[in-house]
Amino acid sequence: MLTIIDRYILKRYLATFAAMLLMFIPIGIIIDVSEKINFMIENKIPFLDIAIYYYHFTIYFANSLFPIFLFLSIIWFTSKLANNTEIIAILSSGISFTRFLRPYIIGATIVSIFVLIMGFYVVPVSSEGFNNFRYTYLKTGGKELMRGKNTDVYRQINDNEFLYVNSFNTASKVAFNFALEKFEKEKLVSKITASRIKWNPEDSTYTMYDYTKRTVGVLGDKIEKQPEKKTKFSFDLEDLTPVVYIAETLTLNDLIAFIDKEKARGSSTINTYMVVFYKKFSLPVSAFILTIIAVSVSAMKRRGGMGMNLTIGIAVAFGFVFFDKIFGVLAEKSTFSPFIAVWFPNLVFGLLAIFLLRNAKR
User: Fold this and answer.
1) What does UniProt give as the signal peptide span (predicted)?
2) Residue 28: CB atoms within 10 Å
């Protein structure tokens, strides 16, 4: 049962966090518009596309900087409680510091559940819209960069089939020097080659040029050749060169299925996908850690007042984001464990939260 004090603090917790979002998101949009407005006008980007982009930008921006917004909002209103001696009055009434934390933990739980659901289903859609706009309109050669490395692509399609293309043109959706090998019990049974292969989106088929199929037989091989052949394959366009940010655009169930498929293929970029997966769960947990740190830092009246608390808060918040980004990139670009990379900032700042909480109790 929530007491009057619990409801009072919880209301301030959620209201200040919402106000922080409403204050900083428009600032982020204004800065982004000021940087891109000339480019948008010169390239005559449709207004509807711009409006949709900023809708997705709002969600993407809020999700990316959510730890900073949450942390600063708690620092802000808790410092005001301390400066008004409200915290001293609460603790003097016989309430322990641990009990004082209860409405904060309830608030962190509400925010965590909200962020978790958003990360599973809403943020992926906005991530796709945000990145599609950037790569389509704002980056030179964006559509080529969208699919990352598109030369010498060699991928395992399933347990028995392996695909290779020398290069892939994202604009024309044409791959060159195509080869598809099929094995049974580690023995080659057939191989299809083509000088180029074109994706046909209207009927989800492929057209192969200079088509050759070699079927390995016991007494001799069977060769089939055609100048042009249209057919369907079990792989799709993403198997040639997946979009570099594809993991960010998938809902939870789709992401799990995608990761399982990429693991079976021995994908070289699996760490990137695993980082995205683990962050969906680590980000909500950070709400609890940052809440405890923020309360522990700002619950005491300091000589510098609220300004000192905000300075400490900003330093800690940006330290958390720095650790999060550095270890995320480390896992994506090396063999470093994605699980450790994603959860390490929470571990470090979790220990810091315990230390600060023990000091605050004194």
Assistant:
1) none
2) 16
pLDDT in tens, 171-209: 677 888 889 998 888 888 899 999 989 888 888 889 999
63, two tokens: 């999700």
Cα(135)–Cα(141) distance, rounded to whole angstroms?
8
DSSP secondary structure code for residue 304 in this structure: T
**In 285-319, which positions are buried (b, 16+ CB within 10 angstroms) versus exposed (e)?**
bbbbbbbbbbbbbbbebeeeebeebbebbeebbee
163 or 301: which leads in pLDDT: 163
Residue 174 is inside which H or E element, if any? strand 174-184
> Quick check: helix, strand or coil at residue 158?
coil
How confident is residue 333, by pLDDT bands cut at 50, 70 and 90? confident
pLDDT (tens digit per residue) in 57-113: 999 888 888 888 888 889 888 888 888 888 888 888 888 888 888 999 999 999 999
The amino acid at 288: F
d(CA 211, CA 192): 7
Write the DSSP symbol of residue 118: I
Q: Who contacts 312 (Cβ-Cβ below 8 Å, separation ≥6)?
A: 75, 297
Most confident of the ranges 139-143, 214-218, 288-292: 288-292
Using the Cα atoms of residue 130, residue 131, residue 137 and residue 140 in order, give the sign of their dihedral.
positive
Cα 39 to Cα 103: distance, rounded to the nearest angstrom: 47
The region that residue 228 occupies, defined by phi over 0 for left and psi between -120 and 50 for alpha, beta otherwise, is beta
CA distances from 327 to 206, 271, 320 (A): 40, 12, 11
Separation between Cα atoms, residue 11 and residue 15, nearest integer Å: 6
* Residue located via tokens 């604009």: 171
Looking up tokens 């809440």 gives 291
Tokens of 49: 């596309």
Nearest residue to 211 (alpha-carbon basis) of 184, 239, 180: 180
Segment 278-282 shows an average pLDDT of: 92
